[in-house]
Amino acid sequence: MPARPIVCALCHSGVVHSGGLAVPGRDLATLPKAHLHLHFTGSMRISTLAELADHHGVRLPEALRASLDWVPPRLHATDERGWFRFQRLYDLARACVRGEDDMRRIVREAAVDDHAEGSRWLEIQVEPSSYAPFVGGITPALEIVLDEARLVSADLGIGVGVIVAASRIRHPLDARTLARLAVRYAGSGPGTVIGFGLSNDERRGWLPDFAPAFDIARRGGIALVPHAGELLGPSSVIDTLSVLRPDRIGHGVRCVEDPLVLDAVAESGVVLEVCPGSNVSLGVYRSAADVPLADLLEAGVPVALGADDPLLFGSRLVAQYVIARDDLGLDDVALAGLARSSLHGSTAPAEVLDRADRDLDAWLSGPPDLEAATSARHSG
Q1: Whether this model's pTM surpasses 0.70
Q2: C or N: which end of the chain has fewer Cβ atoms within 10 Å?
Q3: Which CATH class is domain 28-376?
Q4: Known catalytic membership, residue 230
Q5: Could you report the per-residue pLDDT of 127-165, keeping only the tens digit for each?
Q6: Which of 230, 273, 298, 351 is catalytic?
Q7: pLDDT 10s digits, 173-188
Q8: What's the rounded Cα separation, in Å, for the pair 356 and 145?
Q9: What's the CA gap between 205 and 209, in Å, rounded?
Q10: Which residues of 8-31 are buried (b: 16+ CB within 10 A; e: fewer)?
């Protein structure tokens, strides 16, 4: 049985110990990739949340207070009580975002953090209704996010597209309003709306009620990227496939619980945005080793790894690749395949994909990161 890789948390370099010899893996922070599952408020740095809370006089609970020994809160959102706690923490964080400057800061820092982790294209998901009261409506809220996405893309060289998300806990007519807004600002490059999603508690709302909103978005030519199959099982996934006809599904991991649904997902070609750190933090799986990534890949399902809500789960994009290597045993070829799936499952322009593909090939053909492995001082 092969030894489980050990990952250096500082250099993201995997080291497999075999017979006393360390065989390092390549640096995952330099692996070209796209990030397709990142929520606006949930992308915040814990230090940023602390500063915004102090500025606006918001008292945060211990679980959200930045400190040197801060650890993510323990959550178990697969039951109603656990989801309520998760949502309460998220709402408290969102309450600290109270104007244009705050919103611009979140977009820019998300892009900076992703760029540092090798992301060539970021699709950040925002529900404009949540921030509308502070900036004069849903249209200004979206325009602020789009404008900062355009500016930071030009500054850093990472492309940032925006997904407008409706919420399952709001009226379906609100979803239609947001879909029309999304289509009005639709585009195919940084600083445009590139997708329309549906998030929040999967157990709320009746899916067919949201289908008209997705029809509006489909006619507008943007990607359809609803959540499904994390809190609920495979029936949630198959219903989403048939009712909303998505291009991607946020999460979707529980399709593996029914072989017929798993086959249907593979046949559809729909990309699953798998977020291992989120799955464990929310209690969907007991440990990272239980996340069924290998089952999805073996079935031929295209997968893009995502961080979901780093603010609450304590792990960003590279950490998901570390989990895939360390806990799930994927080698660099498989990790590069995941990165390529994320890129080609995205809405990134052709020139971004072409360059990323070339750089991905170069990453794979290069030697493992010997210097990083040495500096990590792992002992056999």
Answers
A1: yes
A2: N
A3: alpha beta
A4: yes
A5: 999 999 999 999 999 999 999 999 999 999 999 999 999
A6: 230
A7: 999 999 999 999 999 9
A8: 25
A9: 8
A10: beebbbbbbeeeeebebbbbbbbb
